[in-house]
Amino acid sequence: MHTNWLSWFEKQSRLTQAKGLQRNIEVNPNEMTSAKNGVNQYIDLTSNDYLGLTFNKDILSAMTSDAITKVGAGAARLAGGTYESHMMLENMLSEFHGRQAALTFTSGYMANVGAISALVGKDDAVVSDKLNHASIIDGVLLSKAKHYRYRHLDMVDLQQKLEIAVTKHQKILIISESIFSMDGDLAPLREIVDLKNRYGALLYLDEAHSIGVRGRKGAGLANELGVENQVEIIMATFGKAYGSFGSYLVADDVIVSHLINHCRTFIFSTAMPYPNTVANIAALKVVQKASEARTQLARTSQYMRDRLRSTEIDILQSSSHIIPIVLGSNESALKIKKILSEQGILVNAIRPPTVPAGTSRLRLSLSAGYDEEDMDIVLSHLLPLLKSHGKVSA
Ligand SMILES: Cc1ncc(COP(=O)(O)O)c(C=O)c1O
User: If you average pLDDT over residues 229-255, what whole number do you get?
Assistant: First the structure.
């Protein structure tokens, strides 16, 4: 047994550092420069603020208006922490998605962990894409359901896992992201829906990276592909394209009612703060009208993907505003990120365990606030660095 705790933690830290996996908290330098002179001096491709709404005046003024007389909700939703604005937000969300009901949470992580562990239990199975987000994996672990992980986007493997699961378990929940957070590729939702219908499963779809960006009025990828009503549970977060904070899911009344009664992250945690509910109502209105920003984002993303694909760099199967540049080595990813930052460009270096070992990468997360000219600036700095790391020949 260890008794010298400090030395145990120091050893862990040394091991993490030796593998190039140490994580450090850094202040976003745009915050400092814009506070000084009102302009962002860095091109920021780290943010998930896909529509550029974190500074949106309508949302900001809703949040700071005189009508806001309280900060926190004061209690959990079922214990006095529900206000008219929670109800209004949930009504607007169910209407937006054309579903019977909506339920809000304080983050996407809380929604996934709580909802998944309330929807299935030890007699059930979850069949989940191998690259699903950590919050999904944690929800499954907490549920005690049997966890089958199918190869990323592989419908043959999904079907094989379903074949096995139907013979052994009560309920089967298929879980996928719609746009994958680290690869930027898209789940084949129509095929997934066909399979879930064929095997009598439920489908839980995490639209964290597609909400606001895809679909009619930004209602997400399932909406764009015409299968929204066939997905039993759609989850989305306010922390990305909405430019705000919090999350929600939409589903039929009976499922939402089950979650209100069994979802522990909903029942046992203080409700979304009142100012956030008001901001999220404003953000929902802004997102629905943001078709120009969606078009701009799609255009810039296409341009950037095409430019990168014309080199030899591996951007996987990205077909969205999330563009991975796979380098393999942790050190290369950290080094290029650092040099780019010194040159005024912010990108994330993504390493294990966020991505599989040997696939460390830069993650470019584009925003409607940027255009092709901005991407040319990024490329003029990025391509020579990739070349010096042997990743681009010309
Ligand atoms: C796919 C996916 N789901 C859920 C989450 C969690 O959302 P939030 O940041 O609102 O907790 C994230 C965010 O990183 C995500 O990428």
Answer: 98
Give the predicted TM-score (pTM) of the model: 0.95
CATH fold for domain 22-48+291-388: Aspartate Aminotransferase, domain 1 (3.90.1150)
What is the SS3 assignment for 269?
Answer: coil
Domain residue ranges in the chain: 22-48+291-388, 65-288
Annotated active-site residue in 47, 128, 181, 360? 181
Domains 22-48+291-388 and 65-288 share a fold: no
Of residues 50, 52, 54, 63, the one with CA closest to residue 281: 63
Annotated active-site residue 181? The verdict is yes
Mean pLDDT of 57-86: 92
- Higher-confidence residue of 29 and 263: namely 263
Of 124, 199, 127, nearest to 158 (Cα)? 127
Choice from 109, 110, 238 to test ligand 1 binding pocket (greatest atom count within 8 A of CB): 109
pLDDT in tens, 98-119: 999 999 999 999 999 999 999 9
The residues, ordered by sequence, that sit 6+ positions from 270 with a Cβ below 8 Å of its Cβ are: 72, 73, 74, 75, 76, 81, 106
Task: Kindly list the protein residues whose Cβ atom lies closer than 6 A to any atom of ligand 1.
Answer: 107-109, 112, 133, 135, 177, 181, 206, 208, 237, 239, 247
Write the pLDDT tens digit of every residue in 296-320.
Answer: 999 999 999 999 999 989 999 999 9
Q: How far is CA 1 from CA 4, 8, 9, in A?
A: 9, 11, 14
What confidence category does residue 65 fall into, taking pLDDT thresholds of 50, 70 and 90?
A: confident
Q: Residue with the nearest Cα to atom 9 of ligand 1? A: 108
Task: Return the pLDDT at 31.
Answer: 72
Amino acid identity, position 60: L
Rounded to the nearest angstrom, the distance between the alpha carbon of 127 and the centre of ligand 1 is 19
Catalytic residue among 240, 321, 337, 391: 240
The confidence score (pLDDT) of residue 38 equals: 57
User: Which CATH number is 65-288's, of 2.60.40.10, 3.30.930.10, 2.120.10.30, 3.40.640.10?
Assistant: 3.40.640.10
